[in-house]
């Protein structure tokens, strides 16, 4: 995945050198001053009053007489729904009818009916028509009678017999009883789906809509608590935008790869089980038991198979992983170094996602054609090579492989100022 776009991050955020300012696609970094990935409103936004009025006027006016006259555009989405409701799901049909009617609730805009018989339903919406007060639709997912009816089967059989006698008294009575539960069921399918509810501003006041969405996404991500939110190392807008990843457990390497690839706009690979040498404190190293005061034995950590360890360190293969980024060009590589402006936000985003239990190692890979020659700073070259970070001593004119030798950890952040 590669980034595109003309938007870039301010110099104070990325790197200190003017010539090392890379170009990023819009929204790739959590900068509060800019929109894009850190701003949720451009992604999920309720329609304005003008847009809602335009939609209703192009579909079906809210008045009963206009509804009976039918839609003004037979080729529109509402016209397709009235001609053939089969391809529409239950929630999509309810949303379309509510937007076209303009009512605040499904009970005012839609009259629900149950299909006759117990045949297997081929679609969620069997039929739809325009009545005096709104839409009249036959739905199959829920009801008192029909294929999904909760009443005993003989009620559905009795309705078929009454229909043959051209009597609708029993059917109308049962539909009256089921109208309110079906309307509430239909509204719940919209209320708890942000992608649907934002198109009906009456569900959430316009002034509180943005705050409500942000609060909901932060709660789904697990960071809405007043005690946790201030401790976030990244911009809350970034967490909101990637709330789908943050709200899913367990947080696997594949999800981290997908998150970072989209956030950076670069190829990312997560290498698990990177070996890590862990130093053992001197007071916890194994030694022969010694007699303490009163003849008691001091703690010696010498039980084989329990707490004994040879040496002052041990190799841990479960507590560290490596994030491999690239290959990238020279400017992006400088931004990914500990002295660059992208290293800190990237490390904080990873730490927020994986927690504090694991160690993080970053390995930016520089393209082989972008590896600079080892030379001292000059008037035209302001940046100096950094030993172990951005300096390569090569005997060949061109490298055969990309440069993946530099590896950075969290301790390099403190070293960046003195390196």
From TrEMBL:
Q: Which Pfam families match?
A: T6SS_TssG
Per the UniProt record, which residue ranges are transmembrane?
A: none
Locate the compositionally biased regions of type Polar residues: 1-15
Q: Where is this region: Disordered?
A: 1-38
Q: Which InterPro entries match?
A: T6SS_TssG-like
Can you tell which superkingdom this protein's organism belongs to?
Bacteria
Which NCBIfam families does UniProt cross-reference here? VI_chp_1
Q: Which protein, by its recorded name, is this?
A: Type VI secretion protein
């Amino acid at each position: 995945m590669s980034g595109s776009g003309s938007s870039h991050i301010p110099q104070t955020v990325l790197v200190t050198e003017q010539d090392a300012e890379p170009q990023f696609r819009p929204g790739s970094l959590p900068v509060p001053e800019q929109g894009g990935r850190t701003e949720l409103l451009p992604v999920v936004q309720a329609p304005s009053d003008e847009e809602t009025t335009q939609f209703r006027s192009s579909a079906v006016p809210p008045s009963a007489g206009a509804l009976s006259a039918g839609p003004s555009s037979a080729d529109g989405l509402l016209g397709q729904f009235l001609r053939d409701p089969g391809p529409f799901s239950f929630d999509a049909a309810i949303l379309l009818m509510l937007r076209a009617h303009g009512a605040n609730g499904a009970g005012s805009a839609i009259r629900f009916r149950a299909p006759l018989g117990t045949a297997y339903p081929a679609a969620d919406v069997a039929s739809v028509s325009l009545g005096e007060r709104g839409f009249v639709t036959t739905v199959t997912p829920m009801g008192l009678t029909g294929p999904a009816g909760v009443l005993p089967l003989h009620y559905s059989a009795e309705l078929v017999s009454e229909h043959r006698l051209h009597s609708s008294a029993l059917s109308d009575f049962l539909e009256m009883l089921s109208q309110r539960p079906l309307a509430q069921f239909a509204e719940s399918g919209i209320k708890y789906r942000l992608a649907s509810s934002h198109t009906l501003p009456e569900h959430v006041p316009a002034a509180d809509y943005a705050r409500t969405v942000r609060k909901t996404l932060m709660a789904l991500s697990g960071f809405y608590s007043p005690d946790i939110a201030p401790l976030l190392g990244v911009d809350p807008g970034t967490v909101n935008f990637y709330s789908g990843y943050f709200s899913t457990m367990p947080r696997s390497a594949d999800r981290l790869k997908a998150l970072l690839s989209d956030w950076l706009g670069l190829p990312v690979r997560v290498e698990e089980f990177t070996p890590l040498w862990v130093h053992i404190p001197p007071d916890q190293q194994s030694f022969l038991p010694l007699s303490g005061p009163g003849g008691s034995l001091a703690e010696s950590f010498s039980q084989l198979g329990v707490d004994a360890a040879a040496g002052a360190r041990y190799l841990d293969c479960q507590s560290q992983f490596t994030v491999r980024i690239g290959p990238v060009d020279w400017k992006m590589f400088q931004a990914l170094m500990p002295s660059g402006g992208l290293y800190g936000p990237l490390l904080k985003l990873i730490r927020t996602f994986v927690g504090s239990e694991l160690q993080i190692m970053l390995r930016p890979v520089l393209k082989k054609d972008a590896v600079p020659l080892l030379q001292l700073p000059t008037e035209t070259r302001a940046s100096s090579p950094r030993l172990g970070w951005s300096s390569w001593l090569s005997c060949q004119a061109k490298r055969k492989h990309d440069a993946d030798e530099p590896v950075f950890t969290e301790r390099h952040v403190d070293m960046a100022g003195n390196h």
